Amino acid sequence: MAEGGRKKNSGKREQIVETAERLFTRHGARRVTVEEICREAGVSKMTFYKHFVNKTELVRSIKQAWMEEGFRKFDEIKAMDIPYPEKIQVMTRWKVEFTSRLNVEFIKEMTSSDEEMAEVKRRYLANIAEAQRDGAIRSDINPEFLWLVVEKLNELAAAGRWKEVFTDFSQYQEQMRTLLYFGLLSRQDELK
């Protein structure tokens, strides 16, 4: 019986998370209340607070799950036995699909913590260094400089400046990836 109770509680937690993700991606986390999440999920506030201390913890939990999903996908694509430019295209398609379902406000709210950004940076720099060793990316470009460019582009995205050029955030993502990766390829004929 206790096992069934745990499953039921786990199901309620999943219900809360799925509902919150849906509401947050549509409206942004700041605009959505715990009451709205509970009403949409069909759970009581008491049930919500059994699983999460507050909405901030719920947002953190969702963000962590998305970071893990992104890292898993990155590792999966990196391990594919395809040329580097194709890996970048696959990663770009996945990232565009993922971000296209998010509200711009929620993207801003989900800006990673220093610890998470340190891991993203570490993986990014390692990927660039490996691609440079393999000859897929120009070796005369400093990976740390590229990271500075990525940070600035992310600031543009967070400020909503992309709207001055694009009608859709996925278009911005696509252009950013094209610039940062395909603009760096050591053999431009690979793009054709």
In short:
This protein is mostly helical and 192 residues long. The protein is built from nine helices and no strands. Helix 1 packs across helix 2, helix 4 runs antiparallel to helix 5 and helix 5 packs antiparallel against helix 9.
Report on the structure:
The chain has 192 residues and is an all-alpha fold. It has two domains: 1-60, Tetracycline Repressor, domain 2 (Orthogonal Bundle), CATH 1.10.357.10; 83-192, no CATH class. It contains nine helices and no strands. It has helices spanning 2-27, 34-41, 45-51, 55-78, 84-100, 104-109, 114-133, 143-159, 169-180. The N and C termini lie far apart (62 Å). 14% of the residues are buried. The model is unreliable at 1-7 and 188-192 (pLDDT under 50).
Distance between the termini: 62 Å
Uncertain ranges: 1-7, 188-192
The count of DSSP E runs of length 2 or more, i.e. the number of strands, is: 0
Q: Count structural domains.
A: 2
What characteristic shape results from the CA principal axes? elongated
What structural category arises from helix and sheet content?
Answer: mainly alpha
Largest sheet: none
Mean pLDDT: 82
- Structural Rg: 20 Å
- Please state roughly what percent of the residues sit in beta strands, choosing from under 5%, 5-15%, 15-25%, 25-35%, 35-45% or over 45%: under 5%
Percent helix range: over 70%
Number of continuous helical runs: 9
How are helices and strands ordered from N to C? Answer: HHHHHHHHH
